[in-house]
Structures are given as structure tokens and as C-alpha cells.
Amino acid sequence: MKLEVIEALAQQLQSGPLSEIAHVEGRVRVVLRRKSGLAPGAANVARPEQTERVVKAPTFGLFRPAHPLRRVAEVAVGDQVGAHCILGFVEADSTLLAITAESAGTVSMVLCKEGELVGYGQPVFRLT
Fold it and tell me: What is the pLDDT along the chain (128 residues), one digit of tens a residue?
């Protein structure tokens, strides 16, 4: 396949409404994709609203936003967190159980105060 063919495909992809273009010549197949996956003008299309997710307490006990040895809250409103990231703790019978995010997101709200009694499955954080 000649370089001119690939350049022409790239130009077509860049100037057209496509997000992907493929070309087969003999036993060679070339696939070009836009990095964002969006065609020109697609950014103006309405996107679905971000869904809020609730992170719940894994057990009953006292809510602790920070590990006692660190004394600094694990997360704050506006922090980006990954899946399985520790957001805080529940203290039950001198044991700390981590409260973890099931999926990545941004902390939009902390629903409990330090030392507040929380029940099993009670919402503790909101993520967007």
C-alpha cells in the first residue's frame, strides 16, 4: 500500500463526518480512527447526564473519614477516585473496615460526619 493512499484516507477522515475508516488492499488492511472517537460537530450532541452513585457502609459502626494514624481525610468533595479506592472507614468493635468505591468517579458529597453512627448499607458518599 502506498503512502499516498494512507494520506488520502487520513485526509478523508479528518475532513469528513466519519470516526473510523478502513481500507483493504491485497493482504494489507489499514484502519484509521479519530482519537476522541467523535466526528466533527459531534461535541454539540447532548450527552446523557452523569449518574450519581451511592457508596454504602459495609457494616454498622462509627464513620471515620480518616485512618486514625493519618488524621487526614481519605477524600474530599471534588476528588477524583478510582474503582476500589478507599473513601473512608467504619469503626466497629475496635476494627476499621474500609469504605471503597465500586467504580471510578468524583466525590460529590460526604453524607456523614466524623464519629456518626452508621448502619449497614447506609449511604455514606455520593459519586458522579
Answer: 677 877 887 777 677 666 677 777 777 777 777 665 444 555 545 555 568 899 999 999 999 999 989 889 999 999 999 999 999 999 998 899 999 999 999 999 999 999 999 999 999 999 99
Residue among 17, 64, 21, 8 nearest 44 (CA): 17
Residue with cell 493512499: 5
The SS3 assignment for 5 reads: helix
Q: Report the C-alpha gap between 89 and 106 in whole angstroms.
A: 18
Domains of the chain and CATH, by start:
3-44 (no CATH), 53-127 (2.40.50.100)
Location of C-alpha cell 459531534: 42
User: Measured between alpha carbons, how far is 117 from 125 in angstroms, rounded to an integer?
Assistant: 14
- Residue from 36, 52, 49, 48 nearest 105 by CA: 52
